[in-house]
Amino acid sequence: GKGVSVVIDSTNPVVDKAAVSPATSASAYSAKLPTVSWKVTDTNFRDVYYSTDKGATWKKLSTAKEGSAAIPASAMTKTGLYQIYLRAYDKAGNYKNSAAMNYYYDNTAPKAETVTRDEDEKYVTVSLNQLSETVDTNKCYYAVKKSGEKAPASSEYIKASDISYKNNCLSVKIPVSDKMSAEGVYEIYVAAGDKAGNIAYSAPAKAV
After folding, report:
1. Does the bond joining 152 to the residue before it have cis omega, within 30 degrees of 0?
2. Is the CB of residue 142 less than 8 Å from the CB of residue 172?
3. Which of 169, 157, 177, 100 is nearest to 131 (CA)?
4. Is the dihedral of CA 174, 176, 178, 180 positive or negative?
5. CB count, 10 Å around CB of 58?
6. Rounded to two decimals, what is the model's pTM?
7. What is the rounded CA–CA span in Å between residue 159 and residue 143?
8. CA atoms within 13 A on the CB side of 204
9. 10-residue block means of pLDDT along the chain (208 residues)?
10. In three state form, how does the secondary structure of 140-172 look?
C-alpha cells in the first residue's frame, strides 16, 4: 500500500528581524500609528501575529515570512508607552516571540483644567491652567469669534506669537485690534499643540 509521509516539526521559527518605526522615546512621542517590519526563517512557516498589550492578547498580522505592516488604531486607543511583540507560527503550532519593541504613542492634544481671561485696552490674555501634558509653544493657535457664532474651523486659527508658558500654564496674549471691533462680545479659542503634533482644534480652550 501507499506510505503516508508524516512531518514532525518541533522546531520553533526564528524571528531574524523585528523592528518598529518611526523611532520614538520617552522624550519624543509620535502621533503616528507604528509600522512593524519582520523577517522569519522557518521551512514550515504559517503566519505572524502581534501584541500591543505585553503579550496578553494576540492578533493576526500577516502570512508573509518577510514584510511590514501598520498596527491598526483599534490596537492603540490611548496615549502611552506600548510594548509591541511579534510572534511567528509554523504549521505545527510552534511559535517564537520577538523581543519587546517600545513605542511611545500620543494621540491626544493638551487640555486645560480651567481657562481664564484677562483684558485691558490693548490686549486680551487667555490662560490655560493645569494642562494635561507638555505644550509645544511653536504649535499654539488662537481664533476670535463673535458671541453666538459657531466654533472656528482649523483654517481660521492664527499662530500665537505672544506666549508665556510656565508651571503647566499657557498664557496667550492677543491684541484687541485683532479681529475685534469696538462693538460686540467676542469669544477667544486657543488650540494648544504638543511635541507629537496633536493640536486641539476639535476641542479648543474657550474663553468667553
Report:
1. no
2. yes
3. 169
4. positive
5. 17
6. 0.78
7. 9
8. 24
9. 66 93 95 97 94 96 97 95 96 95 96 94 93 94 92 95 95 83 82 95 92
10. EEEEEEECCCCCCCHHHCEECCCEEEECCEEEE
Q: Which residues contact 191 (CB under 8 A, 6 or more apart)?
A: 109, 140, 141, 142, 143, 154, 157, 199, 200, 201, 204, 205
> What would the grid cell of residue 86 be?
511579534
Beta strands in the chain (DSSP E): 14-21, 35-41, 45-51, 59-62, 66-70, 80-90, 95-97, 101-105, 112-119, 123-131, 140-146, 158-159, 163-166, 169-175, 186-192, 205-207
CB atoms near residue 106 (< 10 Å): 20
Residue 155 φ/ψ, nearest 5 degrees = -70, -15
Distances (CA, A) of 104 to 26, 57, 72, 83, 136: 7, 19, 15, 9, 17
Torsion of CA 176, 181, 182, 188, to 10 degrees: -50
CA distance 2 to 8: 19
Cell of 182: 469696538
